[in-house]
Specification:
- The protein is of the alpha/beta class and 288 residues long.
- It has one domain (5-284): TIM Barrel.
- The protein has helices at residues 29-39, 49-58, 71-74, 81-89, 108-117, 127-130, 140-149, 179-188, 204-213, 231-238, 256-264, 273-284; strands at 10-16, 61-66, 95-97, 123-125, 153-156, 194-197, 217-220, 245-246.
- The strands form two sheets. Strands 4-5-6-7-8 form a five-stranded parallel β-sheet. A three-stranded parallel β-sheet has the order 1-2-3.
- Helix 8 (179-188) links the parallel strand 5 (153-156) and strand 6.
- Helix 5 runs parallel beside helix 7 (140-149).
- The longest helix has 12 residues, at 273-284.
- The chain is globular, with a radius of gyration of 17 Å.
- 52% of the residues are buried.
- The model has no long low-confidence stretch (mean pLDDT 95).
- Bound molecules: zinc ion.
- Zinc ion is lined by residues 14, 16, 156, 197, 250.
Length: 288
């Protein structure tokens, strides 16, 4: 079983698995509750691989699924990327699993290789939650392993709902998610496909510049309802970057239903819509 691209209407490149088969959650309860409040999420905040597969299959939409391993930074045990890969393999008609490694773990490059061999189709990084500067050369062996595997690296950029509203944002530093730090990575690894996740508030213009300048840089549009997209992002999506921007919801904090309803009302050219919803993701993920 694999993705049947003709049977799919769209590919959502940003979906979080938040609970494993043993009932463990991806974040501690305080961070989980704070982010649910920030996003005013009334849907299930902690979906499993199984529930995501059923939900997306109903919508004829593929989902790129992952967790974030921030064990060192948060002290909270990560969900197992191995288990996510194995569970997603049973739903290969709708799920495209990514892996996640803790960049502070000395074994991270080896883990990238092992996860790629086990079926990871990309890797998710969250510099703020994982508390690392993505352009620190100490982490370059991790990117080397991702580049060797020939799969994309997707980085959270900009403001995060995790820690939002808590004193000190629970110690989470936004500056690590400045996309310009990732410009170094994209320059130093020209064969590595890099995805800048989210409208990179407050660095939107930097993200647009990077995706314009570097062939290997994409932008995913997840984490914000399209009705709040800054005008320069909409302009770029309609023109210069029409082959570089990707539909992503950030499920479960935003549902693909809400995202797409708001996207329908956005001033985007008809011929550009299928590029954003599906075709650009096919190319970015190497599915073509
Ligand atoms: Zn994310």
């Amino acid at each position: 079983m694999t993705l049947d691209l003709d049977a799919l209407d769209a590919i959502d490149v940003h979906v979080h698995v938040e609970q494993d088969a043993h009932g463990c959650l991806s974040l501690d309860q305080e961070l989980m509750d704070a982010s649910a409040a920030y996003f005013k999420a009334d849907q299930d905040r902690t979906p499993t691989v199984e529930s995501i597969a059923a939900y997306y299959r109903e919508r004829r939409t593929a989902a790129v699924v992952f967790t974030v391993d921030a064990t060192t930074a948060t002290g909270h045990p990560a969900l197992s990327s191995e288990e996510i890969l194995d569970a997603a393999a049973a739903h290969a008609d709708v799920l495209v699993p990514f892996g996640s490694v803790d960049p502070h773990d000395a074994a991270a490059p080896d883990r990238v290789r092992a996860l790629a061999a086990r079926g990871a189709r990309g890797f998710k990084f969250h510099p703020s939650l994982q508390a690392f500067a993505p352009n620190d050369p100490a982490f370059y062996p991790v990117y080397e392993a991702v580049a060797e595997a020939g799969v994309p690296a997707l980085f959270h950029t900009g403001q995060t709902g995790i820690g939002a509203g808590l004193p000190g944002g629970r110690g989470i530093k936004l500056r690590f998610s400045d996309p310009m730090l990732i410009d170094d990575v994209a320059a130093d690894f020209p064969r590595l496909t890099v995805v800048l996740a989210h409208p990179s508030v407050p660095w939107q213009d930097a993200a647009i510049s990077m995706a314009t300048h570097k062939a290997n840089v994409y932008i995913d549009l997840s984490g914000w309802s399209p009705r709040y997209f800054p005008p320069q992002l909409v302009r770029a999506a309609n023109g210069l970057l029409k082959r570089k921007v990707l539909f992503g919801s950030d499920f479960p904090v935003i549902t693909p239903d809400r995202w797409r309803a708001d996207f329908d009302r956005l001033d985007v050219k008809d011929e550009v819509r299928p590029l954003i919803l599906k075709d650009n993701a096919v190319r970015m993920l190497g599915l073509g």
